[in-house]
Amino acid sequence: MLTDTHCRNAKPREKLYRLNDQRGLYLEVKPNGVKAWRYRFTLDGKASMFALGEYPAVTLSEARERSEAARKLVKQGINPAQQRQLDRIRKASEAKNTFEIVAKEWLQTKDWEDVTKNRRLDMLERVVFPSIGSMPVREITPTHVLDILQKTAKRGAPTVAAEARRTMSAVFEFAVATLRADSDPVWPVRKALPANKTQHKPALSKEQIGKLLSDFANHRCSFQVSHCMQLMWWTLARPSEVAEAAWDEFDLEKAVWRIPAQRMKARKEHLMPLPRQAVDMLKRLHAITGNRKHLFPGRDDRNAPMSAASLRQALKVLGWSGAYSPHATRTTGSTRLNEMGYRPDAIEAQLAHADQNNVRRTYNHATYFDERRTMMQEWADKLDEWKGQA
């Protein structure tokens, strides 16, 4: 058996020679001074050699460990040289199947609107890809996933953490189905974070509404954000429905906004009456963005709509983020319109809350539009009044 001293003191000769260790392992000393470990084995009656690395980069003990691992493969009828080549091919293939690549491929399989896909991709790029995007999907562990979820939750974004958890799990399920992963590492840590309970902001008082609208009017934010906020208050539409609105949805002569089914939460077309103030604003806005598809083009991509997150950012700058969120506009509108004496059915119809009774739903759709037109005009007039009192 060799010792490290034997290996270290072995000098080159005119011809290659070998120093035997044990069980087929030997050190090959070349005339140029290179010392290489070799493992000699016989498989299917044929003698072969397997390279284990060069000394001293690979020590004697490491060479013995490698030769033992190779010997176990031979006992199973596997050629260690061929197995190493297969391992290299597999690793090269896995390196190409990173989480980011698989996630983007998964997104393309979804029958979603482009805006929905872009919103999900934006979350992945902000929250997930920086940590595991470049990693082979097969090498990602529950520890990696838990780290992402905990960091996201700790920075005060439990809703985003929940979305990240659901999305990562879906991507891993897709990877398993396409034979690029063995399991879903999200599953073991799926309950590591407390269940996210949506925190609905309370309705604003009349004084708060006036102050908010006044703050926005005096804030030097972009005209797009300002007009988007105004249209949301005048119609009580959802933030994303307003931010992603397209010009071909509007008939300004008839003062009607027809939101297509694919952009509605309930996937049913919704008609919105437009108060006078909204029509006047949209006519002015058309002179600025009328040559674009969307009322409020994106900042970075003018062919895409702005993000509803721009509204939340503006509220944060104004100091309103703790007391009010864009979606709370609908809660506030519902509360105040009920106080103004309007029928709940008309208010619910304006908010596009589907009636569970099929007969009532058909009746409501047929009769409430005119009532809603009167209601929303008085609502817009009240907003002007409250803003003027702030």
Relevant terms:
four-stranded antiparallel sheet; Double Stranded RNA Binding Domain; 3 domains; hpI Integrase, Chain A; 10% strand; rod-shaped; alpha+beta; DNA polymerase, domain 1; 7 strands; three-stranded antiparallel sheet
Question: What does it look like?
Answer:
This is Integrase. Residues 199-376 form the Tyr recombinase domain. Belongs to the 'phage' integrase family. One of its GO terms (molecular function) is DNA binding. Residues 97-176 form the Core-binding (CB) domain. The strands form two sheets. A four-stranded antiparallel beta sheet has the order 1-2-3-4, with helices on one face. Helix 4 (99-109) crosses helix 7, helix 6 (142-154) packs antiparallel against helix 7 and helix 8 (206-218) crosses helix 15. A hairpin with a 5-residue loop joins strand 2 (25-29) and strand 3. The chain folds into three domains: 4-91, 2-Layer Sandwich (Double Stranded RNA Binding Domain); 99-189, DNA polymerase, domain 1, CATH 1.10.150; 206-389, Intergrase catalytic core (hpI Integrase, Chain A). It has 390 residues and is α+β, with helices and mostly antiparallel strands. It is rod-shaped and about 100 Å long. It has 15 helices and seven strands. The mean pLDDT is 88. The protein is 53% helix and 10% strand. It has helices at residues 4-9, 60-75, 80-96, 99-109, 114-132, 142-154, 158-177, 206-218, 223-235, 239-243, 276-289, 309-318, 328-339, 344-350, 358-389; strands at residues 17-20, 25-29, 35-43, 46-55, 250-251, 256-259, 270-273.
